Amino acid sequence: MADTLITELTEHLCCLPGVGPKSAQRMALHLLERDRGGGERLAATLASAMRDIGNCSRCRTFTEADVCARCLDPERDARVLCVAETPADVMAFERSTDFGGHYFVLLGNLSPLDGIGPKQIGLDLLQQRLQNEALDELILATSATVEGDTTAQYIAEMARVAGVRISRLAQGVPLGGELEYLDGGTLQHAFQSRQSLG
Amino acid sequence: MTDLDPSWVLHTRNYRETSLLVDVFGLHGGRYRLIAKGARRGKRNQRALLQPFRGLLMTTRGRGELRTLAAVEDSGASHELQQERLACGLYLNELLLALLPRFEPAPDVFALYGHVVAGLAAQTPPAPSLRAFELTLLETLGLAPDFTVVTRTGEAIHEDGCYAFDAGGIGVAPQGVNCLSVPGSALLALAERDFDTEPRAQRQVLAALLQGPLGSRELRSRQLLAQFRELASRTGPRMAAPEQTYNHEPDTSEERDQ
Ligand SMILES: [Zn+2]
Fold first, then answer.
1. Is the minimum CB–CB distance between B19 and chain A shorter than 8 Å?
2. Which domains does chain A have, with CATH numbers?
């Protein structure tokens, strides 16, 4: 059984987004030829990241701690909660807007046709937060897709039950627009022009 | 297919970095799946068009199981569904995805689909149009029995009679645990496409007929609808805006409409 490792390495690198067999082979050869130290550090970090990173028990974003740094930050406004779809969206908001409140990360959207219900996107946890925290405003930052709409409308109902003011990112997000791919200016505009839902 | 086919998107799924897998219901193409390359990025902004409940005109390339989107444009009919009605719309799509065979045009279902979605957006009572859609789909699939006769004997159904109903069809008298007991008037009304008579019994009959081909599969959009209603019932008066109340069927909340 000669040369199975290099084949395996190449195959496994293909799990990265945008990496096909050709670029996987180039990466594998680069690490083997020129950067064994880098490869070892990558392997070690990757192993511990996959083992230790879980979800924040308050906002569900990825963290190796029980509660993430953003949730623990005393400078942030605990009365405003922004519901985002993905950690990438949160990072985009942090880069491009001056939003200073807290986040809740769904890690998806309500999509019955994909078998994704309220539990799978953590809405039981959000429900608890709506009940237990003195929130002034809930900002819905879901995509302008049918799934994003379904999610926003469902959470808006939850917020109404809890008596929390709701707004949703409005102008600036094109129909069908996925937030991750918007430019910063558009995002900033979307944050400023959010509209009340009830 | 080279002509523009009037079409609805039933569902989309992200594919690779920038593409979309799209389940389509076309007037001529029937139900099929296509790949829209680069739809999630770029200037064409196809993502905005490739949404459920937007009337579209589509051209596809390729002949195999998976077509490629060649062109798409808006046909002008775009519907925004709210709350429970959004779940109702997703229910239509889930039914079509689960039951409609691929690549077989279903013009009757197609025609009705546009009407039902428009009605859901226009806040008309959803129940009758959902029943009409279910019945038309069952007829298209060849799964609707003759609602005017007892299936095995051919004996005429009487308005005042009570009949047993199961996957095997309409029986003479209620028997067995898995049988629905259905008033004759509900069956005769179904035959007339009158969905205002015994709406609850009609809903149960159509649901039982649909469950046949669905097998043990549960429709998730029905669950979502129930969850929406549960939430709405807890908001009380806040939700009693005129467009949100369904007084159409005198039934308990979870039994209504679907
Ligand atoms: Zn957190």
1. no
2. 2-52 (1.10.8.420), 75-168 (3.40.1360.10)
Q: At what angle do helices B220-235 and A146-162 cross, to 10 degrees?
A: 30
Quote the minimal CA–CA distance from A141 to chain B in Å.
Answer: 17
Question: Is the Cβ pair B17, A17 closer than 8 Å?
Answer: yes
Quick check: B13 contacting A, CB < 8 Å?
A: yes
CA of A117 to the centre of ligand 1 (A): 22
Cβ <8 Å between A153 and B238: no
Over residues B152-210, the pLDDT tens digits come to: 888 889 888 888 887 777 777 655 556 678 899 999 999 999 999 899 999 999 998 99
Task: Quote the minimal CA–CA distance from B48 to chain A in Å.
Answer: 4
Tell me the shortest Cα–Cα distance from A111 to chain B, in angstroms. 8
Domains of chain B by start residue, with CATH: 1-78 (2.40.50.140)
Q: Residue holding tokens 């290099």?
A: A6
Helix (H, G, I), strand (E, B) or coil at A195: strand
Contact B51/A115, CB-based, under 8 Å?
Answer: no
| Residue pair B126/B119 in contact by the 8 Å Cβ criterion | yes
pTM above 0.90, yes or no: no
Within 8 A by CB and 6+ apart from B167, the residues are B208, B209, B211, B212
In chain A, what residues touch B227 (CB-CB under 8 Å)?
117-118, 154
Q: Is B98 on the interface with A (CB under 8 A)?
A: no
Distance CA A32, CA A11 (A): 15
Q: What is the mean pLDDT of chain A?
A: 89
ipTM: 0.82
Q: What is the DSSP string of B79-125?
A: ----HHHHHHHHHHHHHHHHHSPBT---HHHHHHHHHHHHHHHTT--
